[in-house]
Queue: 4 jobs
Job 1
Amino acid sequence: MSFSQTVKKEILAQAIAAPCCVAAACYGIACFGKYFDTRGLILHTENAQVALWAKAMYKQAGIDGKVYVKSKSAHIYEFAVKDPFEVEKMLAMFDHTGEETALRIGHGNLSCGGCFSAFVAAAFLSCGTIVNPQKGYMLEFVSARYSLMRDFEALLQSHGFAPKYTTRNGANVLYFKASEQIEDLLTLMGAGASALEIMQLKVYRDLRNRANRITNCETANIDKTVAANREVLEAIQYLAGQGALETLPEPLQEAARLRRAHPDLSLAELAAASLQPVSKSGLNHRLRKLKDMAETLKERQSAKPASAR
Ligand SMILES: [Zn+2]
């Protein structure tokens, strides 16, 4: 099931009881359906449950409509109010003539906060989609009606939402890309569990990003430590091989012993592991001295004639 279908299923499970809110849901279906005029109302949907819900809502409002299977293979279902008597009742209920050249939202059809929720939910069921939050954040409403969509945009804005408007293939699109807005909208429409899913996914993603950052950082440090230690260890190895190690002052011998005993520790950790108190910079100084001595010794060796080696 797509995330859109999950959200729609959750919205459909919500009971709308107050008569004003039921009428607002019906009005949302009318506005965002295929057509709504003197011929009546037609909503096409790929979701049979949405068509059945529309029928139930209209029934609750006292208007009879029918559900048809338009195309079984393409999964297109139709909810329609076509009977002239029912159409007349419907137009009167919404205070529309059905002859409007451009459909505008009649705000008289939204009387309480629940009405607004029901209207938006019906709009989403009729013409909305949401991208799977695993892939990104995008919720949109698509309609062929320009004035209606600009009215809807203003209505959403007046309730604190900030939809963006664009056109796609001649259709009007109102969309949201901010995850917080999408969460709020889902909650408003009655899809609280879906909103929670997005929030949890975000928390998980943040944690994972932070963990990755820490790991990357640590890995880089470990690599750096290993490379630096290797040079010192090679120098100590060389000095030992040349029998030079035991001729060195005791603090240098101790530093060499320490580094050989703990080849993988960082400088700070090595200083902490020392039995003799030594600072990080003091230890660094000694290890560098060992490296320099090995360098000097190597240079001296290669300067000697081959016969003397
Ligand atoms: Zn209401």
Job 2
Amino acid sequence: MRVAVVGATGAVGRTILQILDERAFPLDDLVAFASARSEGVRLGFRDDEVVVRALHDRWFEGVDLALTSAGGAVARQILPAAAAAGTVCVDNSSAFRMDRDVPVVIPEINPEALDGHKGIVANGNCTAITALMALGPLHKRFGLRLLVTSSYQSVSGSGMKGVRELAEQVDKLHEQIETLTRPDPQALPAGEVFGRTIAFNVVPHAERFDPEGSGFTTEELKMGNEVRKVLGIPDLVCSATAVRVPVVAGHAVSIYGRFESPVSPKEAREVLSRAAGLRVVDDPARDQYPTPLDAAGLDDVLVGRVRQPDGDDRALLLFAVGDNLRKGAALNAVQIAELLIER
Ligand SMILES: NC(=O)c1ccc[n+]([C@@H]2O[C@H](COP(=O)([O-])OP(=O)(O)OC[C@H]3O[C@@H](n4cnc5c(N)ncnc54)[C@H](OP(=O)(O)O)[C@@H]3O)[C@@H](O)[C@H]2O)c1
């Protein structure tokens, strides 16, 4: 089995290499691709190194499986030809997620969606996966009808450049922290990735604003679109707010869900505690609840703060946190690949 990792030098690509190693993924040969900028870069893999090649037209020749994370524009350019030539591609970008022929798969939630794939399988959006790991089992038992989310998304969700931008701004501002009680807007650093100052701030703008003028960002629209597709609820009403926060890794999602059947927090905790890939961390009396620093580096999604709004026995509030680079991207992609092999 020859496996290609495309986008190998990126935040997701590097995590894919790590996870292929950790899970002893059954491959005979690994090839790593990135842009021409990275030609010749050496990345550690298992006890050895792999030399990154610049992506070229025939990159998929002899490749059985490709794990791709080089962004949507590259995916649109390179995946159809690779899939047509017989390379099965698991893609992390949003380029194909809404295509009818492309399943969005979370192995713990909808493994059956892999049946009949046509060569391209999409990994879900990192925030949607985090929410879906909790919503999937609850939907199965209680029937999800309405969803409202607010997400607190780490800077690594925008790749390595997002992490560097936060680090540079923290460096610049930490010496003048007292001035931030009355900041001079002209003196605040604003980088290319987040547009506004991300250090010591939160920015309610992830990706770009919907060109259709809905007022939502494209990141926010993905939540509803992907939850509807993965759970098979085409008429689900969903609204999402996505906020970038100065956290390095780990996306947190505050979830309000309304269900067809009555559900108590106790029943919800029972369902969630039996779900694969999910860990319930929910004991307010002992200050137990999930945070991004607890989830960073973990495979499981953590869920806690399970509550019910007064007077509505069909509604629940939850707080879920997942490592966006692992379950939100690389781990889920490798799990899809494992499922493909199993089948
Ligand atoms: N970060 C997350 O949490 C996350 C989660 C889920 C999904 N995703 C998706 O995964 C994809 C990658 O994200 P990332 O965070 O890993 O981004 P990143 O750190 O910016 O890495 C991007 C990768 O793509 C490569 N690349 C860029 N342009 C290319 C080209 N023209 N040809 C070949 N390779 C090219 C880069 O190579 P160079 O190093 O040579 O530039 C790098 O390896 C995106 O579609 C993103 O939306 C990310």
Job 3
Amino acid sequence: MKKNKISISAKFVALFLLIVSLNTLAYYFMLQNIYQQELKSQAKTVVSNVESFGAWVAQNGRVWVKEGSKESFLSQELYKASCENIDEEGFVHFYSKNPALAQREFSEVVAKSSSPAKFHMTSQNVMNPVNAPDDFEKTALAIVTKTGAAEYSEFVDGQYRFAQTIYHKASCISCHGDPAKAPEDVIKRYGSEHGFGFKEGDVAGVISVSIPANPLYMKALNFVGIKEIVLILVPFIIALWFVRAAIISPIKKLTEVAHEVSTGKDTPVDTAGIDLNTHNEIHQLTLALSRMRNSTQLALKKMREARAEAEKHRKS
Ligand code: HEC
């Protein structure tokens, strides 16, 4: 069979390549797990920051600002004053921002910043159309609403997308429950159609995070340098050297001797320094070959003697 013509060295190299490929695959899967865990923990950190910021606003009821966008606020109050930023009638305007509104503005600032991680707060029933979900968020909302999952993640178009479910508490229902009972300023600015009808414990929406994530195989190339390649090759070279020095070369030598013995030559087998109780298989083979050579030589000698004897008898 053709297969049997392949040398041990060649088989060893093939075996090594197979082992390295399987190991590489195993390391790749492990790296992928670590990478995903890492992305998830980054996303969770972003979510906690957004939630903490919302909690800070909630702690103060609302935050009130004197300047800034005249479009983005929940309510406004006017005070007669003689400071800067007063209108023609001498009123200074204060605008209030509730947590969700402040979080949206925060997300808009982050979207324009250099931060690679962006976030967005959205719902299946948005009060402000600006917060409408994108395709990933629609999927995430459908899944978390259906399964009750606390989070959902996916790789989409070179981005790691993560969504964390937020639930309505009793305090949220004053604005997101029955529109008839909602604060006047909410109805005035957002109408009474969208973002209402929730009950305590309902899925309020998700905080979704996007982080750029190249496929791991592209990143993996950056992890493999000269040092890593040397560390993979050195053990292979040592193993190959061992196989050649301890097995292949001695076998070649023994094959030559066996061949010469088979042709009747009186070639000595070098057994110097070999212990008769050796556990080294090659040494055992050498001893066996030596014994075989001795018996062959003996048999040959006897045969020659017998032939000489016969010759003598024939002549006499
Ligand atoms: C003071 C009234 C008020 C309360 C209380 C309130 N919200 Fe809102 N919520 C709003 C307003 C107003 C918006 C729209 C903000 C904007 O313009 O982006 C909003 C937006 C949201 C959004 C984004 C999607 C959308 O509807 O536009 C989510 C999610 C949300 N709120 C969840 C909650 C949760 C959870 C709570 C309780 C922890 C809560 N809200 C309490 C008024 C309120």
Job 4
Amino acid sequence: MIRKINKCLMILFAFTLLILPMCLVAPEAAKKANTLADYRKLLKDLQAEQASNQAKKNSKKSELNSAKNNVSYKQNQIIENQQKITDAMNESQKLDEEIKLGKDKLQELVSAYQISQGDNVYLEYIFNADSYEELIYRYAIMEQVMDYQENQITEWKTKIERNNQLKVDLEKEEEKLNSQIDDLAKDIKSLDKEIDSLDDMYLDIASEIKSVKDSIKMYEDLGCKENESLESCLKVAGDKMLRRPLVKGKITSPFGYRTHPITKKVNSFHSGTDIAVAEGTNVYATANGTVSRITRKSSCGGNMVYIQHIVNGKKWTSTYMHLLEIKVKVGQVVTNETVIGLSGGKTTKSYDTCTAGAHLHFSLATGWYDKDYFGYNNWKAHLVDAAKTVPLPTSWSSR
Ligand SMILES: [Zn+2]
């Protein structure tokens, strides 16, 4: 029974471990703005996030610098220690020689002493003493010299032993320093990684800030009030259906993955439907709506118009590219009869690398790009095939 309970507790514990991190990571706040004030709040949050990212990065960078300094400090310490070992070994070698010399000297003294004990004359000869007192005196000195010599040798030997111990200690320290350097190298690697990912995050935040600032400017230009619903400010008139953007047309390149007509790259994504049409032809809004964005002379797409629609209560964003001329303004309310521009694609090639000849590129996405979501990838994720949605036949001659 107890084992069973234990097993249950274990499973519960494992489950908690599994679930806990999910709970700790709060779901990212839905970044949706309904008023200009919301946008300003969003901008403020993003700027705070950017500042905290910067602060984190600065602190990681200073950690990185200190780790790097620590490595060079330890490397210098190793070099210093190696020098200390070399010095100690040199000293020991010198001491060894001195010991040898000292031993010889001592041997000489011992010999002299031994000889002197048996033969006074020889003794006298060696010490050249004038009197017996003098001789005794010299004996005493000789004994002192011998003692001194012996002490000296002992001291040298102790010094050599100390040097050997120093070598052992320093080598141990070197090992320790090397392992510390290894640890620091690991820290440096992970700090580098963290800084890289913070850099990436910074760029993401920066691009989000840019797009929020663009939106704020757009809604300010439209004269939206701080707390007015942007939906009502945009005055998007509802419509009943999506219509063909051209009176006459023929599909030349479909939406989705295809072989690129210019680069010949296979599996290249095409964000819309290409419709062959003579340059300068009227292009109509696919439905009632409000112009939400205009891009001029993009290096891929040329002159582009984005329109936000509500069709049968559902939000759409339509895009028209490679236009020769744009006839609307951002914020302008259009109907499905409004000529928003003239088709291009041929003379616009001079600045637009994504067109090979006269045609209209028509994209359709769900939701409102620049309001419900931002950024190319988000827009791409919301794209649908206009040929199937409007729908568009292979070719037609009326709207
Ligand atoms: Zn196209």
